[in-house]
Design a protein that fits this description.
By secondary structure, the chain is of the alpha/beta class. 52% of the residues lie in helices and 12% in strands. The chain has 2 domains: 83 residues, no CATH class; 126 residues, Rossmann fold (3-Layer(aba) Sandwich), CATH 3.40.50. The protein is built from 9 helices and 5 strands, in the order ααβαββαβαβαααα. β3, α4 and β4 form a beta-alpha-beta unit. α1 packs antiparallel against α8. The radius of gyration is 20 Å and the shape is elongated. It starts with a helix and ends with a helix.
Length: 225
């Protein structure tokens, strides 16, 4: 039970594998191609909770795992020096960049294009809707652009049910609704908890029912006190 409580309390590291695409399959595929080629430009936009930052962090982790030099840049205090000489850079929250930083991003785009590198950027709106320099908006729109859509509750429940079925995990009535109501709603956490429930069920020889989940949450609450 303690192992499950730890899983419930931990936030899994973002990976491309634990990103549930839903209606964002084309965007995820484009990011995978970008990482495979290590060249090009992809811009992702969407509302909070749509998975923009998850994909950017997951892409960096995948690149670093291959030994590729990369840099993470995020507004409002970007470290542009970190991108010097890197083969791939991610830039998050572009709409929050100050005027001087917009110039630096424009220069970085040119630098990466000339060097055959890759840029993965993200913001809250499509390039045309960003309050940025016109030349920067045009340059961001010149690559592949995808809107990210957050999963609704039905899509989340369906994705979790499919994940459980793939593991051969049978869930008691109300378990998925309980998890979506009482835990962080990002899919990386939800999937990690399902996997932990599966292990806990095997170890304790108990079915995955609401009492098991409630016990784990109670254990977590005791540890946090």
């Amino acid at each position: 039970m303690k192992q499950l409580a730890l899983a419930l309390g931990a936030r899994p590291a973002p990976t491309l594998e634990n990103f549930v695409p839903g209606r964002n399959a084309a965007a995820l595929a484009a990011v995978r191609v970008l990482l495979a080629d290590m060249a090009g430009q992809v811009y992702l936009w969407g509302a909070p909770g749509s998975g923009r930052t998850h994909i950017l962090e997951a892409a960096l982790a995948a690149a670093r795992a291959r030994g590729i030099a990369c840099a993470r840049i995020a507004a409002p205090h970007p470290d542009w020096d970190a991108a010097h000489g890197k083969h791939i850079a991610t830039v998050d929250d572009v709409e929050r960049l100050a005027a001087s930083d917009q110039v630096r991003l424009f220069d970085l785009l040119n630098e990466l294009r000339l060097a055959g590198g890759a840029l993965l950027a993200a913001g809250a709106a499509a390039p045309a809707g960003l309050a940025l320099r016109e030349d920067l908006r045009t340059r961001l729109a010149a690559g592949l652009v995808f809107q990210l859509h957050a999963l609704d509750d039905a899509e989340k429940a369906a994705a979790l049910a499919a994940h459980a079925a793939a593991r051969g995990l049978r869930l008691g009535d109300g378990v998925l609704a309980y998890l979506l109501t009482h835990l962080r709603r990002d899919m990386a956490t939800q999937i990690a908890v399902l996997d932990a429930l599966d292990r806990c069920s095997l170890e304790q020889k108990r079915p995955v029912t609401l009492p098991l989940v409630r016990e784990a949450l109670a254990e977590l609450a005791r540890e946090e006190r």
